[in-house]
Amino acid sequence: MKMDWSLGHYEHTAAQLHPAAEVAVEYAAPEPGERLVDVGCGTGNAALIAAGRGARVSGVDPAPRLLEVARRQAAGVDATFVEGEASALPLDDSSADVLLSVFGVIFAPDAAAAAAEMARVASPSGRMVLTAWIPQGAISEVARASREAVALALGGPAGPPPFAWHEADALGGLLAPYGFELELSEHELAFSAASVDDYIAGEFDNHPLWLAGRALLDPRGETEALRERAREILTAANEDPGGFRVTSRYVVALAQRSSRP
Length: 261
Fold this sequence. Notes:
Elements lengths: L10 H18 L6 E5 L5 H8 L3 E6 L2 H9 L6 E5 L12 E7 L8 H11 E12 L4 H17 L13 H8 L4 E14 L2 H11 L1 H10 L5 H15 L6 E14 L4
Parallel strand pairs: 1-2, 1-4, 2-3, 4-5
Antiparallel strand pairs: 5-7, 6-7
Helix pairs in contact: 1-2, 5-8, 5-9, 7-8, 7-9
């Protein structure tokens, strides 16, 4: 089933991820006038930061509603937003100096196809920067619990794990055939709220993945069991006794085409 990222209110999540978008743009270091493509741009976090630095930005995302949000925020900067998938970018060959993806391309159903498309669009001296979660910690554990609950509701196994975008060997192997050399650095992002229950409510009521899961679980009366499991995981991991905070780890991957003949 194709994921509809227009569901809910992804703006809630985008605000949480904004610090990571700032980090990714720093690594991308777009120069004024450089052509930058933000793959899976969502509401435009990274695209608008890059455009503010003078880059000529194109944002690509499969969710029309999120693209409209990005366009409304793009007044006064050189940024356009178009509908498209990571595995079929609506862009010309060698049309980007920089390709950027902040927790976007990692959701592509076909990692190899997405990598091939990004490589096609990159210029001969182009570079890529993407962020990917390290699948450890409380937020990742809650996401696994959700996937397992949805798989059970569908009557099948949870399926294989997603492509390991966070691993140097896996990602390097994906990009090496296109002439890219890879560097990874590790970072942290804290998620916070007034309480564990406030955080859970924000996710269950706003995030497209959670809403898609609830569409299956609610009619079966199974959403509350997942909510309780999430509460257990997050309470055990809470770093702020007076509220709620958990820290997730992620990598920033910088891939540049080799200058070797």
